[in-house]
Amino acid sequence: MSNNILITQNLSIGYTSKKETVTIAENLNLNLQAGKLIALIGANGIGKSTLLRTITGIQKPLLGTVLLNDKKISSYEPLELAQNLSMVLTEKLPPSNLTVFELAALGRQPYTNWIGTLSDADIQIVQEAIELTQIGHLSQKKYYEISDGQLQKVLIARALTQDTPLIILDEPTTHLDLLHKVSLLKLLKKLSHETGKCILFSTHDIDMAIQLCDEMIIMTPEMVVQDEPCNLISKGIFDTIFKDESLFFDKEKGKFTFKNL
Amino acid sequence: MNNPKRNTILFSFLFLGLIILFFVNISLGSITIPFKEVYTSLTGGQSSKSTWEYIIINYRLPKAITAVLVGMGLSISGLLMQTLFRNPLAGPYVLGLSSGASLGVAFVILGASVVPSFLSGVLLSPYGIVLASTLGSTSVLLLVLLVSQRLRDTMAILIVGLMFGSFTSAVVGVLTYFSSAEQLQKFTFWSMGNLGNLSWTSILILTICVLLGLFLSLLSIKPLNALLLGENYAKSMGLNFNKARLIIILATSILAGSITAYAGPIAFVGLAVPHIAKLVFQTSNHTVLFWSTLLFGAGIMLICDVVSQMPGMEITLPINAITSILGAPIVIWLLIRKRNFK
After folding, report:
1. Is A94's CB within 8 Å of B86's CB?
2. A114: helix, coil or strand?
3. Where in the numbering of this chain does the ABC transporter domain appear (chain A) (predicted)?
4. CATH, residue A231
5. Strands A215-219 and A21-28: what pairing?
6. Of B280, B278, B275, B218, nearest in space to B10 by CA
7. Does the predicted interface ipTM exceed a cut of 0.90?
8. Distance from CA of A196 to the nearest CA of B (A)
């Protein structure tokens, strides 16, 4: 299928220290397709970050390969990789005077000349990204003057200007209230469907992801499964995410409930 | 985006101001020389008093050029460090680069008597001092960098810089104990900072070093803009981080090292000037900041030099004292305002 943007073949992830090799998950055969919004779910410490670091080429796999556009991710030059894969990270931005527009425009760096001059075409792309993410009214504000939810949209706009077929977001909904979580996920869904990009994000908001995502990747200590949310529900995967007696997944309502309260 | 019109006006004013300051700087001193005479002397005409012409060509012009070079170089090296270390309080003096350069120079000046005479001749030559100073500042910068990779806390980096400063001054103290009065005097004069007394040959070497440093900084503008979002984002945007960092470090060391070698350790200029540029131009875009820092640096150094010459009086104050008196309050003010840096 030509729709595949990123696939992993028999991928084993983990890390090696001096003495031992710690395997977090093995035999992963994931498939990220164009135009799909995909959530990565798993309990804290299960290895979501390791998986993201491995498929973005920051960390080497223990075994197997990661193919981005049919090419091994390890064989990409930094600049070429930046033109195929953009990221939204959780880390705090260092202090600066950047405006929203300037921040979004930094995404054009893989395409601009040695001093980073924006051409008219570049400015056009930045404007479009700002419109798509609905932050036009903020574009002249400094990035530290806006709210967390707005900043998250600006960072998504920056990833959009990087003009890549794949965008990966690390816990974009953390620190946001319910309303902003929903509007952010809706935005991601709209973007993936309208622009044909593949968007992968990790999150702890399982019930929301079930309602909004095209596919989900669930990480449990035993296995890693990728499927559509309704199939995952009928397979009963969600009960295996958390090892706790008092928490169970209500298939009817599509969310987690407490037992014995 | 920045207001391009506002920037053009600001740059025009800055440039004009710099030219005026350059003339004012040459005109003022223990003897005041009229503007008109300065102009005729500099454009190759005959000044009405030959002593004036002598003073201008042999003393004040080289000093003014040195002030411009020193101001530009130190300010740019401060700008580079503030972005690289993600720390608004970084600068060549605060991070201990100047102390490192001092240590290098101290070894050369104070230690020259220990080595055989043919070697001490090489060491004490202008090249020897520049080399020692650059090596000193580079090694401190590398140490700071090493520490900064272990400590993510930006304040800790400053304290480490301060410790390097104390350490090097202690070593210098030990060295002075074993040196002669003449060597000690030479070193003490150097450490107070001095923009004058540079031969045209020295100015040429300094110009080449500063131009090289500025050229490397110019190449770093795009990486510096990427680094505004932090190391990981910069990498995700295709930046070859190790290469970019190497160029930035090289530029900073060459600038701070060569300037400290010739003009002595000059405090606060490298820290304060980039902030003035950032405040006036209200931007973090390094394309704008590079040129504005360059112009502000040259201008402020010329002003400091005029003040240190105490126009109309017989005395001259050490330049380091002036930059500290003007710079320290700026740093305190920045710290108090730090909430706004977020």
Report:
1. yes
2. coil
3. 8-246
4. 3.40.50.300
5. unpaired
6. B280
7. yes
8. 21
Nearest to A110 among B229, B238, B284 (CB): B238
Query: How close B228 comes to chain A (CA, Å)?
Result: 7
Q: Does residue B2 carry a pLDDT above 60?
A: no
Q: Which domain holds residue A145?
A: 85-163
Quickly tell me which residue has 């001054």 as its tokens: B169
Q: How far apart are the CA of B222 and the nearest CA of chain A, in angstroms?
A: 5
- B5 in any annotated domain: no
Q: Is A198 helix (H, G, I), strand (E, B) or coil?
A: strand
Nearest to B278 among A97, A112, A140 (CB): A97
Domain that holds residue B145: 22-341
Same domain as A182, residue A73 = yes
- Please tell me the distance from the alpha carbon of residue B93 to that of residue B91, in angstroms, as a whole number: 6
Q: How many other C-beta atoms are found inside a 10 Å radius of the C-beta of residue B208?
A: 12
Which residues of A are less than 8 Å from B237 in CB distance? 82, 86, 106-107, 109-110, 162
pLDDT value for B153:
67
pLDDT in tens, A36-77: 999 999 999 899 999 999 999 988 999 999 999 999 999 999
pTM for this predicted structure:
0.89
Same-domain pairing of A79 and A90: no
| pLDDT mean over B148-175 | 80
- A-B C-beta contacts closer than 8 Å: 82
